[in-house]
Amino acid sequence: MKKQKKLALLTAGIATAALTLAACGGQQAGDEAGSGADESSCDAGEGRLSIATGNSTGVYFVVGGGLAKLINDETDVQATSAETGASVQNIQQLVEGDYDVAFSLADTAADAVNGEGDFDSAEDVSTIGRIYSNYTQIVVRTDSGIDSVADFKGKRISTGSPQSGTEVIANKLIEAAGLKTSDVKAQRLDLTKTIDGMKDGSIDGLVWSGGIPTPALTDLVTSVGDDVKFLDATPLLPKLKKINQVYEAGTVPAATYELDKDVPSIVVPNLLMVRNDMRDNLACALTTLVFGETDKLVDVHPAAKEIALENGEKSDPVPVHPGSERAFADLAK
């Protein structure tokens, strides 16, 4: 059933399409995604598939829109993407059946399969592949008096949307710095409202976990220039790794936001999550698309350059879906 079509993925077009699809919400009525094909095959089959992404000014949203278009152009599955609050909410609604695929940070996904953090019990979810990484980006106003996470005490800090992966890591950073979350005047804002607050001075700083460059942060730096600065949180990495080994050291290159120098960062891999009951043929087809047609996603956003076959199954403790395991084996031949 696979269609061979030439793709021309433009970021602006994808964002516009995804905004339209987001208005429709989650899963739509119709045939089960992956139906009409042998489950032992790698044929996507037919049906409808919905993808939970993230904030409209973040990278999840852009790449998720690109993934939906890739699925629509290359298979007979009708895919849509939706704006959401991101990781925690995504997995919760994935489990509830509102979505079929969900973007998530690896630490949140690990909590889901282990029944920890925001999850009361272990969830029946798995991944169809590890994709690019999110960079923990901490930006503060230069007049805020903040030089480290420890200085967040008493300050107005945006910790991200409620139930987002950003909020999860923001709270872990605050605790790793020796503070209580109640010590901080947390502003649980989506990225658009966060950027507005940074511009007008109603908040002192932000924590954001996202791919690079994040469009909203590009807008902030372009708009206010030296009125904001990026902080290095890597001194807290050893404490975070004791909580979860998924955290790694990384760097936001200076050229990303036209800064004077590179900024050390704490990096968290992203996973594409599905329910364990996704048909094997569909999981196989989706993994084959993501890791076999990566250049089409790079056309949408440069963060997708990090998607690599050799890292696709590195998701421990989150299991890889059996259909995706078959795809990785075939792609490695």
Shape: globular
Count of β-strands: 10
Uncertain ranges: 1-30
Strand content: 15-25%
Structural commentary:
By secondary structure, this protein is α/β, with parallel strands linked by helices. It has 2 domains: 182 residues, D-Maltodextrin-Binding Protein, domain 2, CATH 3.40.190.10; 134 residues, D-Maltodextrin-Binding Protein, domain 2 (3-Layer(aba) Sandwich). Helix content is 34%, strand content 20%. It has 11 helices and 10 strands. Strands 1, 2, 3, 4, 5, 6, 7, 8, 9 and 10 form a 10-stranded mixed β-sheet that branches. It is globular. It starts with 10 loop residues before the first helix and ends with a helix. The N terminus is likely disordered.
Short description:
The protein is α/β, with parallel strands linked by helices and 333 residues long. The chain is built from eleven helices and ten strands. Helix 5 (165-176) links the parallel strand 5 (156-158) and strand 6 (185-187).
For the structure shown, list the relevant keywords.
10-stranded mixed sheet, alpha/beta, 333 residues, D-Maltodextrin-Binding Protein, domain 2, 34% helix, 11 helices
